[in-house]
């Protein structure tokens, strides 16, 4: 009983500590920014170049951070300033498109505590970020790409960015080749093949590009049994795929 009580108290303390920190944190898998202290902690120092607030200070891809859960009032106030709200960022923050010149006005919205660039390190999915760290020689890095036999990336295009320009940008980077573009529920994507030996510098450069919203590893679909591609019904001998 005493052990259960102790575990409950530790859990309660952890939840309380996280709640206390939320007003200060913008947190993604690849890095956490404490806006109260100005400190950024990436999963590995090899990625610190993509987490420099000063370097990316003029980006129009920005975060407006609040000290409380956000709602309709904050969103409306941002839109009234001319900001385009693109989504939510943990914790208590909006991801927006707006010029840096609106930072002061955005931070003055009720509950506002910080406004600054959406850091490029946040665009990397966690598996890709760890593999890039491994490429840089980090002992904390991984090689999921080789272990899983992956050879493609999915690159999200930021709203408002020119599709053709991004296509050309990708093709101009060593080791990257566009396979095709496609539409997803939340925007346009490029499927890109890569040369494992050349990808580090190219992906780091791409993450720093304002036209890019996200970069993730592409995991191909796999059927786990011989009947996966088809729809079978009793009395029906057809093996036509469900999507045919």
Structure characterization notes:
With 244 residues, this protein is α+β, with helices and mostly antiparallel strands. It has 7 helices and 11 strands. The strands form 3 sheets. The chain has a 4-stranded antiparallel β-sheet with strand order 5-6-4-7. A 4-stranded antiparallel β-sheet has the order 9-10-8-11. The chain has a 3-stranded antiparallel β-sheet with strand order 1-2-3, with no helix packed on it. A hairpin with a 3-residue loop joins strand 5 (84-89) and strand 6 (93-97). The longest helix has 20 residues, at 2-21. The chain is globular and about 50 Å long.
Briefly say what this structure is.
By secondary structure, the chain is α+β, with helices and mostly antiparallel strands. Helix content is 28%, strand content 26%.
Task: Write out key terms for the chains shown.
single chain; 244 residues; alpha+beta; 4-stranded antiparallel beta sheet; 11 strands; 28% helix; 26% strand; globular
Order of helices and strands: HEEEEHEEHEHHEHEEHE
Helix content: 25-40%
C-alpha Rg (nearest Å) = 22 Å
What can be said about the biggest beta sheet?
Answer: 4 strands, antiparallel
Strand order of the largest sheet: 5-6-4-7
Let me know the number of strands: 11
Shape: globular
The helix count comes to 7
Mean pLDDT: 87
Q: How much strand?
A: 25-35%
Question: What is the CA–CA distance across the termini?
Answer: 59 Å
Low-pLDDT segments, ≥5 res: 4-19
Structural class: alpha+beta
């Amino acid at each position: 009983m005493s052990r259960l009580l102790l575990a409950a108290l530790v859990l309660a303390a952890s939840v309380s500590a996280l709640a206390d920190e939320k007003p200060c944190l913008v947190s993604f898998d690849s890095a956490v920014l404490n806006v109260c202290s100005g400190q950024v902690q990436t999963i590995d120092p090899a990625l610190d170049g993509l987490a420099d607030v000063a370097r990316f200070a003029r980006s129009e891809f920005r975060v407006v951070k609040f000290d409380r859960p956000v709602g309709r009032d904050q969103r409306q106030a941002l839109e009234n300033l001319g900001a385009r709200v693109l989504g939510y960022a943990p914790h208590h923050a909006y991801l927006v498109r707006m010029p840096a010149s609106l930072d002061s006005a955005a931070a003055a919205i009720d509950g506002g505590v910080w406004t600054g660039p959406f850091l490029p390190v946040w665009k990397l999915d966690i598996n890709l970020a760890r593999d890039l760290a491994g490429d840089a020689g980090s002992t904390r890095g991984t090689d999921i790409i080789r272990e899983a036999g992956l050879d493609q990336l999915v690159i999200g295009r930021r709203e408002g960015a020119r599709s053709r320009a991004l296509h050309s940008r990708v093709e101009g980077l060593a080791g990257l080749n566009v396979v095709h573009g496609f539409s997803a529920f939340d925007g346009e994507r490029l499927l890109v093949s890569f040369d494992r030996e050349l990808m580090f510098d190219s992906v780091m450069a791409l993450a720093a590009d304002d036209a890019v919203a996200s970069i993730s590893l592409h995991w191909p679909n796999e059927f786990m049994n011989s009947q996966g591609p088809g729809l079978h019904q009793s009395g029906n001998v057809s093996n036509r795929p469900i999507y045919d």
